[in-house]
Amino acid sequence: MNRFSASVTVALSFFAVLTQAPDARAQTFPAKAITLIVPFPAGGRTDLTARAIAEAMRDDLRQPIVVVNKPGASGVLGAKEVAAAAPDGYTLGLFSTGFLTAQYTLPTPTTVKEYELISLINFDPAALAASSMNGWTSLTQVITAGKAKPKSLRIGINPGNSAHIFAGAFVRAVGLDVLFVPFKGGSERATAIAGGHIDLDFDIVAPMKPLLDAGKLRVLGVAAERRVDLYPQIPTFKEQGVDLLVYSWHGIFAPKGTPAPVLATVDASLQRISRNAKFLANMEKLLLGVRYMNRQEFADFFADQDAQFRPLIQNLGLMVKQ
Question: What's the N-to-C CA distance of the chain in angstroms?
Answer without folding.
Answer: 65
